[in-house]
Specification:
The chain is α+β, with helices and mostly antiparallel strands and 238 residues long. It has 5 helices and 7 strands; from the N terminus they run H-H-E-H-E-E-H-E-E-H-E-E. The strands form 2 sheets. Strands 2-4-5-7-6 form a 5-stranded mixed beta sheet. Helix 1 (2-48) runs antiparallel to helix 2 and helix 4 (129-146) packs antiparallel against helix 5 (200-210).
């Protein structure tokens, strides 16, 4: 019994250490970029005065700072979600809403010329609207980050008692050997373009599982990646 308790304690400590290591790694990049931008702006203002900064440079600085702050905020939210998952407090707020209207609202908020939306889902679903948006936004962000300059196709349709959502990019793709790995906690692929996988996709997988659905990927090097969601129309459906 004592040996079992010791093993459990060691496992919990290892998980906490892993969590701290990943958190430090994920937060370092945007935090470093933010610090450099602020330091460079401060040095310039100390040397030339704030009046010397042109409106265009000021706008660029504010935009970059804003993006890094948003990224930090998303990472902190992800860390909190992982903590909730580990503690069993990762809850969903299911409600009925019109999926087609919901997707139109999402489309209006995510403005990008590279994203092509095809939505044919005039149906009521019973989901956690915030969490499903979190999944879709994460998949879009991954596509934008790993498949730069690629178009992104988002397709939403109905089949039987399920809704099917796919997010397809046409970038470098992901080797089949690591398809399952990228959905695991804190796991990444061995390829260079897999940097960043390890938190977001794990949380996406947990959200989809809480909706009694599945998330999968079709991808090969050089032909892009297609992330697919299959979610029951209602969480009460078995």
């Amino acid at each position: 019994m004592k040996r079992t308790s010791e093993k459990k304690l060691h496992k919990e400590l290892a998980m906490k250490n892993e969590f701290i290591c990943v958190a430090s790694h994920e937060l370092k990049t945007p935090l470093t970029a933010l610090m450099l931008q602020v330091e460079m702006a401060k040095k310039f203002m100390d040397a030339h005065g704030i009046e010397a900064i042109s409106p265009k440079k000021m706008q660029t600085l504010i935009n970059r700072t804003h993006q890094d702050v948003l990224r930090l905020s998303r990472l902190v939210d992800d860390m909190m979600d992982i903590s909730r998952i580990h503690s069993g407090k990762f809850s969903m707020n299911y409600e009925f809403f019109n999926l087609e209207d919901y997707m139109e609202e999402l489309k209006n908020r995510i403005t990008s010329d590279k994203i092509r939306w095809t939505v044919n889902a005039p149906i009521l679903v019973k989901w956690d609207r915030f969490r499903i948006e979190q999944v879709i936004v994460n998949l879009i962000s991954n596509a934008e980050r790993h498949a730069k300059n690629s178009d992104i196709d988002i397709n939403v349709g109905i089949g039987g008692a399920h809704v099917y959502i796919s997010v397809q990019d046409y970038g470098p793709g992901i080797s089949p050997e690591i398809h399952e790995k990228i959905f695991e906690r804190f796991k990444r692929g061995e390829e260079k373009n897999s940097e960043g996988f390890g938190i977001g996709l794990y949380i996406c997988n947990e959200i989809v599982k809480h909706h009694m659905g599945k998330i999968s990927i079709e991808s090969h090097p050089g032909v892009g990646a297609n992330f697919m969601l299959q979610i029951p129309i209602s969480t009460t459906l078995q």
